[in-house]
Amino acid sequence: MEHQETKDIIIFDGECNLCNGVVGWLLNFAPKNLFHFTPFQSPEGQALLRQHGFPTQQLDTVILIDEDGLKTHSDGFLKIIAKIPKWQRVAALLAFIPRLIRDGIYKLASRNRVKWFGKSSSCSISF
Description:
Layout: E1 8-12, H1 17-29, E2 35-39, H2 43-51, E3 63-66, E4 69-72, H3 73-82, H4 88-95, H5 99-117
Parallel strand pairs: 1-2
Antiparallel strand pairs: 1-3, 3-4
């Protein structure tokens, strides 16, 4: 598991087209060296899932591990977005939406992401 200790770790589904698209967007817009991306299917992703008590067969949420700990679902997504200077205001506005509503929308998208966006046999991040 090689990565700089200062980077926030993002664990994502490397076979999900939506997830790969978001990772590509983050690679373009996030400050360089801010995030370390690891697909949950990779050996590193599997080890991190086990370490934090998540199932290793599938992933239904993005996971952010940073200096404050671990965040998932809409909290994880908003915290990721908030780390990008140009998107901090958007994240702050979305944070006003109650978590129950945010997570409901997040879980709906998560359940349907493969149906809506498809599945890839390869990941945008090599592992």
